Amino acid sequence: MKEIVVVLQRDFHELRQTNAFRILVIASVIVAFGAAAGISIAFRHQPWLSQESAQPILNLIIGIPAYFISFFILLAFIWAFASLPIIKEKVSGNIDSLLATPLSPRSIWLAKTLAIFLPGFIVSGTAALIMLLGISYLVIVPAIGSIILPVPVLLITFLINPLLFFGMLSFIVLFSLANNPDIAIAPSFLVGFGLMIGMPLGIMTGAINMSSWAFTSWYLAATMVVWVIVLWLTRLLTKENIVLSSKGD
What is the pTM of this model? Predict the structure, then answer.
């Protein structure tokens, strides 16, 4: 366990020193405050918000931006940091050096995955929380006198969405270590762009209700499928596969 923490801390320190990390953090904060301000300006003085029939609209005001700010920040961390650092470490021989230590391939995989996921999770969660509280206190509280935070929206934003992207990230790091890093990230593009297109279309057509338990259940089920695939693929994490992939075989 101590060795895993050492690798995690080293990788996180290197990630934190990059310009991409600084840009993502700054952009996330700006987007969170900007979205809260923009949505508040657009809806704050609408008299219909205080009506009981406006409940579905209030749920949308909360649900859609909360989901998508978490979605885009987590996806940005994956696309920015998941594959390229491992390619560099394979070229430099750092991966071979780690394999010469008592660390198992699965421990290396876990440490490198967490080093990317944890800061992404913290940044995305903080940005979503800033935006949710901003919208709540600037729009919803003045309209109805209390905060509305649908439990399904909170679960998707702060638990299921991170779990889904943790699974995607785990797959990329796993496949980058044990096989070809250049193609490891490809499935995340399919999932990412699929959700970018499918979620707005589903919301606009009424097929998706982000504040419903039915949608939350389906989203959780899809996340579990991703994790089943990842756990099945952990059989590829052998020293032989990692060494051969580092040498381009």
Answer: 0.88
Cβ(87)–Cβ(179) below 8 Å: no
Three-state DSSP class for residue 100: coil
Q: What Cα–Cα distance (Å) separates residue 29 from each residue in 33, 69, 111, 137, 206? A: 6, 10, 27, 18, 30
Three-state DSSP at 1 gives coil
Strand ranges for 74-123 from DSSP E: none
Of 168 and 98, which is predicted with more confidence? Answer: 168
For residue 190 the two structure tokens come to 């399919």
Contact partners, residue 193, CB within 8 Å, separation at least 6: none
Q: What is the number of helices (H) and of strands (E) in the chain?
A: 13, 0
Q: Where are the domains of the chain?
A: 2-246
- Residue found under tokens 């998508």: 68
